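Below is how a single chain appears once it has passed through the pipeline. First comes the sequence as given, then the structure the pipeline wrote out for it. We keep one example in the README because the format questions we get most often are answered faster by looking than by reading.
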Amino acid sequence: MNTTKVKLRTKKISKQRLSLYLDFYPPITGVDGKTTRREFLKMYVQENPSTPLEKENKKATLLIAEQIRSRKENELQKPEVYSESEREQLALREKRETPFIDLFQRLSKERQKTLHGSWTSSLNYYIEFINGREVKCSDINVDFINSFKSHLLTAKSLRREKMMLSRNSALSYFNKFRAVLRYAYSNGYLVKDYRSMIEGIKEEESERSFLTSDELSRLASTPFSDDILRRACLFSALSGLRFSDIKGLYWKDINDHKSGTFLHFRHKKTNSLERHPISQEARKLLGERSQSNKPVFPNLKYSDRNNKRIQDWVTRADIGKHITFHCFRHTYATLLLTEGVDIYTVSKMLGHKNLQTTQIYTKVIDDKKNEAANKLNFPL
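Resulting structure:
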């Protein structure tokens, strides 16, 4: 019997990054027929994480790597005495015995680039939930899924200490988990389509803060030291683009024509390709055209610090509202509806796949109409 031992080791590849790899002793024969002592996992951690999120990501990555190491060592102990038909049956059984976290990690790597890290966060909450247990696909059932849903609804935020995870964040992370369930069933890892059997988390209706046209004009005339962030905020209010899409805009995506300016880009969140018209005022905010491979808003960063700077800017403009970067997208939607644009067109301009997502803004407009009507309240 093979007695190869497998150790998890790290290799320093930069000042702060470590690459994880498996060390085999004695060496094993690789797929190319050559003996080797190393197998790099293409997984990386920071050597000295400083923030709670960085520490949590390192802990989660090391846990996954250790599970891979353990399975690899177990595989090397098994004698290969199976016939072809037995191997086919074994492959089917092994799919059911695959740790569910492997599939979660696989989809997370594929999709996290388009969803601003929400897949990574969802994976981290799952790792927190299983707490070191190796949960196989054969262990997945309705009770397990509902337990994870309950965990998300009562979990503390991994990003902000002493704060609870918001309901809408729990909804987003649970939807990622359900996507893994669908993938697992479609590819034979699960025997039942649990995703269709489980009720999702209902969205909590949250207040959509936005600026009126007068407030937006007042804000635009208020000085702000960071010109790039200022222009990006105002551009979001006049185009409806999310932060991730604005950050990902390159000059090759900007098409100027006699009939107007159009953006040709792929939504980071939905991965859909869009041809999006913008106004002349929005085009002015982009500035002079540069090389096609240059970002339109270089060095733009989303952070709590920048949101605080935006709030300070709003306060100096004498606007008594809590405004973050995403509120400028809300502003775009409410301004269009206020101007009488139909909800279907607004939905398309926002890149929504579901009209119901856009309908929340009609409620905002109706509330404002009611508020205005109630001001005409005097005895006759």
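Residues 5-77+93-197 form one domain.

See the next section for the split statistics.
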